[in-house]
Amino acid sequence: MTPSASAKRGLARGRRSVFRDAWLVAAKDLRVEARSRVGMNQVVPFALLVLVLFAFALDSEREVLRRAAGGLFWMTVLFAALLTIQRSFVAEASDGARDGLRLSGLDAAGIFMGKAAAVVIQLMALEVVLAAGIVVLYDVALAGPLLLVSTALLATAGLSAAGIAYGMVAAGLRVRDTLLPLLVLPVLAPVLLAAARASDAALAGTPAVGWPWVRLLAVFTTVYVAFGVLAFGALLEEA
Question: Given 3-state DSSP classes, what are the helix, strand and coil percentages for the chain, each rounded to the nearest 5?
Answer without folding.
Answer: 90, 0, 10
